[in-house]
């Protein structure tokens, strides 16, 4: 069976149309797959930053609360108990600061190293102040004597307390995240 020129033209036209349609569909499918891959890569690249931002902000919030809770005047007012010796009060104050710090230690993975270092330095400074003042008190000193001495030292030297500076650093870092 031989094809006439008209049949041959129709067959070629059908083949070209079919081939062209298949080529177009293949191209369109590849283009859509590439666009989907690009979108996925962009989401993947942006995802961790945007996914962790609420966790980072929450960490800064918790650390600002920690800074407030371990500020010496606040610790003293929270744990103040009548009838304790200076040694017992010293132990109670230092334990309270350490517990608060340890409770929030995991927050360091969400904040800048500088922010975490500032919080750690505040904790260390407060423990040092408590221990230094306690070491200068007489053996018969009461917990009230220790508390009063710490508060007097802070009033005489406001720069000795870092908690406002550390809170400002944490607040600044959190605000940078929100921009």
Number of strands: 0
Beta-strand share of residues: under 5%
Give the terminus-to-terminus CA distance: 77 Å
Please estimate the helix content. Answer: over 70%
Indicate the low-confidence ranges by residue numbers: none
**Helix and strand pattern:** HHHHHH
Per the principal axes of the C-alpha atoms, what is the gross shape?
rod-shaped
Question: How much is the radius of gyration in Å?
Answer: 34 Å
Q: Give the structural class.
A: mainly alpha
User: What profile does the largest beta sheet have?
Assistant: none
Number of helices: 6
Mean pLDDT reading = 86
**What is the count of distinct domains?**
1
Description:
The structure is a single chain. This protein has 179 residues and is mainly alpha-helical. It has one domain. The protein contains six helices and no strands. It is rod-shaped and about 125 Å long.
